[in-house]
Write a structure and sequence with these properties.
alpha+beta; 186 residues; DNA-binding; TATA-Binding Protein; nucleus; ten-stranded antiparallel beta sheet; 4 helices; single chain; TATA box-binding protein-like 1; DNA binding
Length: 186
């Protein structure tokens, strides 16, 4: 990946968002009264439930749709979702774990160099857009991977994509473009 040395870039996954269905109606009031680590939000029509291991937060709707956030890997997201389904079963609901899907992955990565954002934007239009008055980073969208990369002048990047594989591929794809626009070292 790196043309000057053999160091690999560390891509740190900070959040994995996954959804699943219980295939049954959930009484939010019952979950709020009998469940643990629960926040009931009747004005929005959902319950927030937190698990300690794996550390995830779940948004639970009465329709049986559940969104889990906070996991740091796809496996951890699935384990957390299954554990949540088990908690709901123990509360007396006829939960059947189905339609599990990872919908979003957020990762961060640091380049070993700083980046000239204006040069990077000029060389990669219209894929890259930079509005310094609105946001300090260049937004770089890779349509076929459904990935979005925020590039900061420090060399720090955040990557959002539909799964871990697409996030890793997006970083590999943008690295040579960033390497071309690195700031000279002082």
């Amino acid at each position: 990946m790196d043309s000057s040395n053999d160091d690999a870039l560390d891509i740190i996954i900070t959040n994995v968002v996954a959804t699943f269905r219980t295939r049954c109606h959930l009484n939010l009031r019952t979950i709020a009264l009998e469940g643990t680590n629960v926040i009931y939000k009747p004005e929005v029509g959902k319950v927030l439930m937190k698990l300690r291991k794996p550390k995830i937060t779940a948004s639970i709707w009465s329709s049986g749709k559940i969104i889990c956030t906070g996991a740091t890997s796809e496996d951890e997201a699935k384990l957390g979702a299954r554990r949540l389904a088990r908690v709901l079963q123990k509360l007396g609901f006829k939960v059947r774990f189905s339609a599990f899907k990872v919908v979003n992955v957020l990762a961060v990565c640091s380049m070993p160099f700083a980046i000239r954002l204006i040069d990077f934007t000029k060389k990669n239009r219209p894929i890259a857009s930079y509005e310094p008055e609105l946001h300090p980073a260049v937004t770089y969208r890779i349509k076929h991977l459904k990935a979005t990369i925020q590039v900061f002048s420090t060399g720090s990047i955040t990557v959002t994509g539909p799964n871990v594989q697409n996030v890793a591929t997006a970083v590999e794809q943008v690295y040579p473009l960033l390497f071309e626009c690195q700031k000279p070292r002082n």
